[in-house]
Amino acid sequence: MDVDVCPECKVPRQFIDTHIWLSGGIIVQRADQKHRMVLIESDNLDPLFKGIGELIGVSIEHIVIETKLRSSRDYMNTIIPDEVKEQVRSFKMDIKPLIEAMNVIGHMLGYGDSKLIEVRYTKNPDDYVIERITDPYSVLLWCGDLAGSSEAVVGYAHEVKYEFVSPDQVEIIAWPSQRPPKFQERLQLKEYALLDGDIDLEKCGTCGGPAALSGYAWDVARGVIKVVERDRRVAMLGPAYIEAVFDELEKELGEEIPRVVVEAQRRFTRGSLYSPAEVGSEEDFRKLLALRGLGNLRELRMDGRGMRMSMQNAAVPLMVTGLIQGYFEDITGVESNVEWELKDDDTLELEITPKK
Description:
Number of domains: 2
Number of strands: 14
CATH topology of the largest domain: Muramoyl-pentapeptide Carboxypeptidase, domain 2
Oligomer: single chain
Order of helices and strands: HEEEHHHHEEHEEHEEEHHHHEEHEE
CATH superfamily of the largest domain: Trafficking protein particle complex subunit 3
Radius of gyration: 20 Å
Helix content: 25-40%
Largest sheet: 6 strands, antiparallel
Strand content: 25-35%
Shape: globular
CATH class of the largest domain: Alpha Beta
Strand order of the largest sheet: 1-2-3-10-9-8
Distance between the termini: 54 Å
């Protein structure tokens, strides 16, 4: 796959050109600066969703797919020019090259190796698009990606399903269908406060992106991004849609859901977040979280009584809480309890104490 990369940091130029890193530990889409993005570990996403379902005894697949569908539809609507969409809808332009171009974007964002298998577009109910993805970053999120991208291009709603063709390969089909309007109305997407901060990430002298991204390896042909030092896979996605999943679960299943999410994340990420050597210091950790777009770490204190943390502009706060708790247990070797509060301005405050 022919993608232009920066000769200095080796990051795809389109990845840098599409996103902006703000001073408050925030990544936004350049074309729509209200659309926040995060670069997070992806190998645990489907296990996290499955683990939450097992803990509550109810599958959450439909909620995950619907929320990611909306994310991808909004993202692609800002990337694909209106005139291109109009040409496709009037049959002046073949839809296949556009789908293949969107696959390139997915490869760049770390979504896996996606290939168009077949597409039928005649503006009839029997239209469909079939993609086969090797090493998907998340099967459920990829279902939302395909249906949402299809909606952005053709302008009407789609349904989606998936089937594994091998342990590391899934085939996904999307087709025209009307989703229940009540469910769509219930998924309220968060608007972040986006407070300014004082984080100044060192920039690559050639492309202008964060220099620290040189520690990440893009295998664009496979659609995989990895943290070189720890061999962890990451992907770029919108946090508001992940948070909408958790909010919807809490509405449906009760106020215990946030603790279920934190516990599931702690279980899946303990031993795989950040080593003490990788973090180095509070300032290093602050810049690392900002590079990922997770927020602006304002305080991190640890003593014999536990750990206290305060972070402005917190994205996916439940996942971050579970991540930090897992990190604490890694470096101390003891199990813990955690309490947290997310304030109206998206400041996350948490306290972790050893279990007695």
